[in-house]
Amino acid sequence: DVGFELRDSIPDSLSSLGNQLYHSQRMIAVARKPEK
User: Fold this and answer.
1) pLDDT at 21
2) Containing domain of residue 26, as a range?
3) Residues 1-17 pLDDT 10s
4) What is the CA radius of gyration of the chain?
5) Per-residue pLDDT tens for 21-36?
6) Between 20 and 30 A from 10 (CA), which of 3, 4, 21, 29?
């Protein structure tokens, strides 16, 4: 399965970058939320 090999060869730095993007988006969403 070529798709599995490609996915398996994705560097950890790429996945950690994705995690940083996900967390920063959550932080922005929380910051934009009106405080009550």
Assistant:
1) 92
2) 2-32
3) 566 666 666 777 888 88
4) 16
5) 999 999 999 888 877 6
6) 29
Token digits for 18?
């994705």
For residue 15, what are its two tokens?
């996945």
pTM of the predicted model over 0.70: no
Distance CA 14, CA 18 (A): 6
Cα separation values, 28 from 19, 25, 32, 33, Å: 14, 5, 6, 9
> Tell me, what amino acid is at 34?
P
Total domains present in the chain: 1
Task: Mark residue 32 as left, alpha or beta (left: phi above 0; alpha: psi -120 to 50; beta: remaining).
Answer: alpha
Any idea which residue has 């967390």 for tokens?
23
